[in-house]
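User: If only I could read C-alpha cells as easily as an amino acid sequence. Underneath my words sits a plain record pairing an amino acid chain with its C-alpha cells. This is the protein in question:
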Amino acid sequence: VSARPLDSVCRKIAHEYGLSPRETKVFQLLAQGRSRTYIQSELFLSDGTVKTHTRHIYRKLGVHSKQDLISLIQSRY
C-alpha cells in the first residue's frame, strides 16, 4: 500500500470520527504500523501523550487493538 492512498483513507476516517489534528497525525503513523517509540520521536511527544492519543483514537473509532485499527482502514479501500 503506497503512503498517499493510506494517508487519504486515514484523513477521511479521522474527519468522519472527529479526531483532533494531533490524533490524526498519530493515527496516520499507527496505520503505517509505527511503534509508540517511533511516534514519540517523529512528533516530539512523551510516551504518556502517545498512549493517551492512542487510547482516545481507539475509543473514537470503536476499536480495541492495532489489528482492529488496520482492519477498519483496510475495509475502506
